[in-house]
Structure formats: C-alpha cells, structure tokens
Specification:
Elements (H helix, E strand, L loop, with lengths): L4 H20 L8 H5 L5 H22 L6 H21 L5 H21 L11 H21 L3 H11 L3 H25 L5 H10 L2 H15 L2 H25 L1
Length: about 250
C-alpha cells in the first residue's frame, strides 16, 4: 500500500478540511478523505486509515462542544444509526459503492433544492411523528453510509437542517453524533479485518493534522453569522450530493 507525493498532499488537505468541517461546519465538507485516498489505494484500506483519524477528531471536538448538543436529537439519531451500521456491515463487499453513492446523491440534492427554493419553512419538531420518522431514517442512513465510506454527513445534515437549530447546537450535535457512531464502527471494522500494520502507520502519520483542523474549524464558525452559515451548509449538502452522484454514475 503506497502513495506518491501527490497522493500524500491531496490526502493531507482532505484530512485538514475534514477536521475544519467537523468542528466548524457540522460536517458540511466531510467525507472528502476516502474518495480522494481511493484514487491511490483501495477503498477498504482508505476507510481503515481514516477511521482512527476521525475518532481522534471526535475526541478533540467533544471537549470543545461539551454541553451544547441537543440531547433529544442524539437520543433519536444514535439508535437508528447503530441499525444502519449493522446493516452496512452485512452489506460490506456485497453492495456496490456506486449504488450507495447514487441513492445518497439524489437524496442530498433533492433536500438541498427543497431548502433553497423555500423562502420560509417551518422547523421539524424532534418529538412530532414526522420528526421522529425522518430522524430515524436519516440516522440509519448516516450510520449505513458512514460505515461504507465515512460519508454519513449528508443524511445527518438533512435532518439537522430541518430542525433549524442554532449554529452552535447544530455543530455540537453533529460532533457528538459522529463521536458515538465512529466508536461504534470500530469493532465492526476489526471484525471485517480492515486494519493492517500499513493502514495504522498511515493513520499515525496523518494524526498531527487533527488538532490544527479542529482549531481552524472553531475559529471559522465564530466568524460566520447564522444566516450565511445555514446557506453554506445547504449549498454544501447539495454539492456533496452532486459529487456522490457523479462518482456513483461515472466513477
């Protein structure tokens, strides 16, 4: 498992952007590392390299965002995400990555367009029937796609954007959600025998980028007003959907 200099540079930038995204933009730009790394190494090796780095980011992030997440949303999202993780583990290697990317891309684009075209919308209550159903669906989708490719951001963003939370609560809830499911994925990855000496060495090499990315993300969040933050998050959701659709159809 080897990468040339250009591969290391692209991977390092993707890891840095992932840290910025997770701590400052609620995962809006997350999921870049695996598709970029997969241009040089196998997707199975890429997800194994990235998971320890994501867990390290989560551990830094939960210290920074402690007490600011929406506990009700987490109680709704995490159990369904665990179901998604279990289903993805069963499907790992049997289900085409392209199919997952196409479905996720279509959902992400449709939701982003819906939000952008509506000048005013009502927030979804987490306790309403529609809110719980949508939350379960998004949580399971996030767990499923996160297990396959660390691409759980779009389903989670779809739910959190519908809740219209304050931006600090939005980001904190995202940080705690992914901290829980990334730790939950660890035994499944071990059971699938994804980790090797090479993947762990590569993870350790990239770990110094974690605190820098988290720090930059928090600084960025402090400077973005509420309305532009949500516009950017919705646009990022749509763009991530376009990329997933492109990769699924033509990758």
């Amino acid at each position: 498992m080897e990468m040339d200099a250009s591969g290391w540079i692209v991977t390092a930038v993707a890891i840095l952007l992932t840290g910025i995204s997770k701590s400052g933009l609620g995962g809006a730009l997350g999921g870049l590392a695996v598709p970029f790394m997969s241009m040089w190494i196998s997707p199975r090796d890429a997800v194994a390299v990235v998971l320890p780095i994501l867990i390290a980011m989560d551990l830094v992030g939960i210290r920074a965002w402690r007490g600011k997440a929406d506990v009700g949303d987490l109680k709704l999202l995490i159990p369904s995400a665990l179901v998604g993780i279990a289903l993805a583990t069963l499907a790992f290697g049997a289900m085409s990555d392209a199919v997952v990317k196409v479905v996720l891309g279509v959902i992400s684009i449709a939701f982003a367009l819906d939000r952008l075209l509506r000048r005013a919308g009502h927030a979804v209550s987490a306790t309403s029937h529609a809110g719980r159903w949508f939350g379960w669906l998004c949580g399971a989708g996030a767990g499923f796609t996160s297990t396959l490719a660390h691409a759980g951001g779009p389903p989670l963003m779809a739910y959190l954007l519908s809740r219209r939370l304050p931006k600090q609560t939005y980001v904190a809830t995202s940080v705690f959600f992914f901290a829980a499911i990334n730790l939950a994925k660890l035994p499944f990855y071990i059971g699938l025998d994804l980790f090797s000496r090479d993947t762990l060495v590569m993870s350790a090499t990239l770990l110094p980028l974690v605190p820098l990315g988290v720090w930059l993300g928090m600084r960025l969040l402090a400077k973005i007003p509420e309305r532009p933050f949500y516009f950017f998050a919705i646009a990022a959701l749509g763009l991530s959907g376009v990329k997933l659709l492109w990769d699924g159809l033509l990758g």
